[in-house]
Design a protein that fits this description.
Length: 753
């Protein structure tokens, strides 16, 4: 017995269409200026992809473009996990390719995110004007229809700015597949309509060439769905969670999985439900939301109320994307200002200024450029904004291709650094990708970087093919597709002209190949890696599964987050991660801010003078700085005052002086730079967030030795000591039993259990 077809009348109407694909004369031209303004993300752009490349072609495009972006994310993730730096998208090219390339990437990156933010505001204003009318179902957001787009753009722009100024650092499917992937639709769309500037169909290219053009142009459009995935690395400088190498590894890995699976599966499911020749997918429809394949699917399935919920989700998604885009763009502009690469000094000086850790001037400057969003209100200016959005995609391709090229240079630098005579054994270990403490690596990453670089290059060079197909030649579309390339080159040349003038002999590559700030994972027991003690379904394996992230020490047993462990903090004095020296004492906390932050409070005297006998000073430095905030003179003062040691969530210098004073110093890393001009003390004895739920309050006990540092609240101190004594007694018994020949399994079972 054959399965029965389950479909609504309109789907049946499309399925009855004869032939192998929609006839050229049946291609819906769509209203002027509206049909082409669809280069959106997954929610609003996937319908256009299905219509342009066919159901199978669209899924293939999302899968292929997903692998390209995944290659970029893996390259960026490995570099950022090893060296958490400020603005990694421009800093890594600056280090490993060329300083001029770093400047050019920074400006391209800022421009791309600024235009993206403006385009998302336009998308919000269009989505609020939701209307869906297919002759059988009528849906309408009346308030949105009656208010001008400019009002919505203004309202949401104000909210976006305010937020950024306050940011602290079955059977049915099987049947439909057979129907909508076979005749008359096929795996690919066999027709490619060539549209002019007024969105009218000039001619239709059929056959294999039409299929190839449909897949190619769809791939370019699909790429827009993936832009912004790099945000996880861009926020590492301000996020204490992402600055941790383990969190960076997990973020990169999860993003890669979601790129390949979530996006592809969404489009695959949608292609089962909506035919490629649906009029709303081909330029029809009364609003941007009505062309979403997800809204069409729920309406055709007889659930029109769900369409309102989907459109509301689209509004929220575009709105939050605008917030994120402004955040990234403003931080990139602030970083450019810190590098002195934003023009005249009076502008640069203002863009450097922060207030409560937020670069206010950079946010406002970027917001001012976002006013181009008003171009997208309607008519011809809206087409101009669409051209900027198209150019934004090309800018991302340049940036992403550069990141892959940067990784290849970074990879080579890692290999070379291990052979340098000046490289210590500890440094060589931190550069070894096969070291179990290496923060994050992806197998075959250099091959993926090559693949990503070549793919971005091909997409960038051939993305403007549509301009050559129109009659007459579409010069505006051609310029929109390729103007970013000469601008990128001009930015690099401008850097050299400003620095070296016409002395062409000095125009060579300028790069430091600096691997400074490299970190290692705190333990060979890595986050995200599940290791079972036995084979099969044993009790111990189930216990390990349920206690995957459990740490068996006293503080964890007492419910203290992460056992109070300060991940990434290592001993540098009196020896480097060696010896039996221990440190314990109540904390005196010091909050540092960037030197450009003139609004933050200032202490009454030098912060080193706040050291007290028997206590440990905890200094928290702003993330992403290359400078040290603790030096030999400060250790001299701390030792004189009788301090037990110092813990620096940042960098230190003058290691020999600390060791001469025989004072315990724990820090993330070292530097040769002092704090002058980079950071300054702001507040003393205030609660400071180390990472997630781990806080250091004044008076909390800091306990450190060769294995690291933990923070113990006074309320848990006595119980923690008692549990530690019990554990020490048990461990002594186990040690004695092992010396007497007892097996490890027997000893653990007898004493630990």
């Amino acid at each position: 017995m054959e399965p029965k077809m389950v479909a609504t009348p309109q789907i049946l109407h499309h399925a009855m269409h004869s032939g192998h694909s929609p006839h050229p004369d049946d291609v819906d031209e769509g209203p002027p200026n509206e049909g082409r303004r669809e280069r959106r993300g997954l929610f609003l752009g996937s319908g256009r992809s299905i219509a342009g490349a066919g159901p199978g072609g669209a899924v293939l495009c999302y899968l292929l473009m997903g692998t390209v972006i995944s290659s970029v994310i893996s390259s960026l993730g490995e570099m950022t996990a090893l060296m958490p730096v400020n603005a990694p998208m421009m800093e890594f090219p600056r280090r490993f390719l060329d300083r001029g390339v770093g400047l050019a990437v920074g400006w391209m990156y800022w421009f791309a995110y600024t235009v993206l933010a403006a385009a998302q505001l336009v998308a919000v204003s269009n989505l609020i004007r939701f209307c869906y009318d297919d002759g059988r179902t009528f849906l309408n957001w009346e308030t949105g229809q009656n208010v001008d787009n400019a009002v919505w753009i203004t309202a949401f722009l104000v909210i976006v700015i305010i937020v950024n100024l306050n940011v602290r650092p079955g059977r049915l499917c099987t049947t439909l597949v057979l129907t909508l992937w076979n005749s008359p639709y096929w795996f690919f769309n066999l027709n490619y309509p060539v549209r002019d500037q007024e969105n009218e169909v000039q001619r239709v290219i059929t056959g294999p060439v039409g299929t190839l053009l449909g897949v190619w142009t769809t791939s370019i459009n699909v790429l827009f769905s993936f832009v912004g995935m790099d945000i996880f690395a861009a926020t590492a400088a301000e996020s204490r969670a992402l600055s941790d190498s383990e969190s960076m590894k997990m973020a990169a890995r999860k993003i890669n999985i979601r790129i390949i699976t979530l996006y592809t599966l969404c489009v695959l499911t949608a292609s089962f439900l909506v035919p490629t020749d649906h009029p709303f997918l081909n330029g029809g429809g009364q609003s941007v939301g009505s062309r979403s394949v997800f809204i069409i699917a729920v309406v055709e399935a007889g659930m029109p109320a769900a369409a309102h919920a989907f459109n509301a989700i689209f509004v929220f998604s575009s709105f939050t994307c605008a917030i994120n885009s402004l955040y990234i763009a403003s931080r990139v502009l602030h970083t450019l200002a810190l590098r002195g690469q934003t023009g005249p000094e009076f502008i640069t000086r203002r863009l450097r200024q922060c207030r409560s850790g937020v670069p206010m001037r950079a946010v406002m400057m970027t917001s001012a450029v976002m006013l181009i969003g008003y171009m997208g209100r309607s008519g011809s200016p809206g087409a101009r904004l669409d051209e900027l959005a198209n150019n934004c995609t090309v800018s991302y391709l340049i940036v992403y291709g550069t990141i892959c090229a940067t990784y290849l240079c970074f990879y080579r630098t890692l290999e070379d650094a291990k052979t340098y005579e000046t490289t210590s054994e500890v440094q060589a270990a931190s550069y070894d990708r096969n070291n179990p403490l290496y923060p994050y690596k992806s197998h075959g990453q250099w091959l993926k970087a090559c693949y990503g670089m070549v793919s971005c290059g091909i997409l960038m060079l051939l993305n403007g093919v549509g301009a050559f197909l129109e009659t007459p030649f579409n010069a505006r579309k051609f310029i929109s597709a390729y103007i970013s390339l000469p601008i990128f080159i001009l930015l690099i040349m401008g850097y050299r002209l400003r620095k070296h003038g016409l002395r062409f002999s000095k125009w060579g590559l300028e790069r430091s190949l600096d691997l400074g700030g490299a970190v290692q994972a705190a333990s060979e027991k890595r986050k995200g890696r599940l290791e079972f003690p036995d084979e099969g379904f044993t009790r111990d394996n189930w216990r390990e599964l349920f206690h995957w992230v459990w740490i068996g020490d006293a503080l964890v047993k007492l419910g203290h987050p992460y056992g109070g462990f300060l991940n990434g903090i290592r001993m540098w004095s009196p020896t480097f991660c060696a010896g039996s020296r221990k440190m314990i004492g109540p904390a005196v906390t010091v909050k540092m801010v960037e030197a450009s932050d003139t609004s933050a409070p200032q202490p009454g005297r030098h912060f080193a003078d706040y050291n007290e006998a028997g206590k440990v000073m905890y200094v928290q430095q702003p993330k992403g700085l290359y400078s040290a905030c603790w030096g030999g003179l400060m250790s001299t003062r701390a030792a004189f005052l009788g301090a037990q040691g110092v813990v620096v969530d940042g960098r230190v210098r003058d290691l020999n002086e600390h060791r001469e004073k025989d004072i315990p110093v724990f820090a993330r890393d070292t530097s040769i730079l002092g704090s002058s001009g980079f950071s300054r003390a702001s507040e003393i004895d205030v609660p400071l967030q180390f990472d997630g739920d781990v806080w250091i309050h004044p008076g909390d006990f800091l306990v450190g030795d060769v294995d690291g540092v933990v923070v113990v609240p006074p309320s848990l101190l006595e119980r923690a000591i008692s549990l530690c004594e019990e554990r020490a007694t048990v461990d002594r018994r186990i040690l004695k039993a092992l010396h007497e020949g007892m097996t490890m399994e027997e000893a653990m079972a007898r004493f630990r259990n």
